[in-house]
Amino acid sequence: MTKVRILFYGDPHGQWRPLLAACKEERPDAVVILGDCDLAQPLSEAIAPLLEAEVPVHWIPGNHDSDRSNWFDHLFHGGVPGNLHGRTTEVAGTRIAGLGGTFRASVWHPHGSEDSRFHAPQEYLAHLREQRLLDGRERLAETVIFPSIYDDLANESAQVLVTHEAPSCHRHGFEELDLLAETMGAMLIVHGHHHEDYEARLPSGIQVIGLGRAQPRLIEITPAG
């Protein structure tokens, strides 16, 4: 079976030249961006050559994408509708799931407590409205991991799980991501956030690839038959 060639891009933090150069050289079947875009312009403008070439582009948000209103708007309303956070979709014939954002103690942090303060984004937003805290904190609803989003993904299946947070093989990682990938039947996790280029393998046999800041990585994947 023919392998598909997907180019994954580590946290851009405003740097797009490495991605554009890698795509020009590698000509991937699709692109997946791992969050923390820090966009000074709409995403559609930052990666215009890829869209003009009709390269499918997908992305997950990072924790910093809600830090500023313009960063948030340029990503979530930036003209590229391929948000994978909390979703599974077929990318170039490969089933990919996305879990963007990070764990936060104000919502759910597994290392701090097994209990979450808010199960779903709707509960969090209702709390902000009740406390009259709609001062930008509502943007966190799109860049935080909620138990409801995690649970919904656990009911799906995918070959690849793309995350911003790291699984347990990283010193700052989470076993919850190991379990999610196992439950979904994924054999590969690709993540950003920590700006470290490395490869590892979980005890379950799942391969893990961490990408550095603004680092492109072409991965060939055999679609499930």
SSE layout:
Layout: E1 4-9, H1 17-26, E2 30-33, H2 43-46, H3 48-52, E3 57-59, H4 69-76, E4 87-91, E5 94-99, H5 121-131, H6 147-154, E6 160-163, H7 175-184, E7 188-191, E8 198-201, E9 207-210, E10 216-221
Parallel strand pairs: 1-2, 2-3, 5-6, 6-7, 7-9
Antiparallel strand pairs: 1-10, 4-5, 8-9
Can you describe this structure in just a few lines?
With 225 residues, the protein is of the alpha/beta class.
Describe the structure.
25% of the residues lie in helices and 20% in strands. It contains seven helices and ten strands. By secondary structure, it is an alpha/beta fold. The longest helix has 11 residues, at 121-131. It has a single domain, classed as Metallo-dependent phosphatases (Purple Acid Phosphatase, chain A, domain 2, 4-Layer Sandwich). The strands form two sheets. A six-stranded mixed sheet has the order 4-5-6-7-9-8, covered by helices on one side. Strands 3-2-1-10 form a four-stranded mixed sheet, covered by helices on one side.
Sheet-strand content, in percent, reads 15-25%
Mean of residue pLDDT values: 95
- The CATH class name reads Alpha Beta
Overall structural domain count = 1
Q: Any idea of the CATH topology?
A: Purple Acid Phosphatase, chain A, domain 2
What is the overall number of helices? 7
- CATH superfamily assignment? Metallo-dependent phosphatases
Alpha-carbon distance between the two ends: 8 Å
Largest sheet report: 6 strands, mixed
Would you identify the regions where 5 or more consecutive residues have pLDDT less than 50?
Answer: none
Question: What is the molecular shape?
Answer: globular
Corresponding CATH architecture: 4-Layer Sandwich
The structural class is alpha/beta
Strand order of the largest sheet: 4-5-6-7-9-8
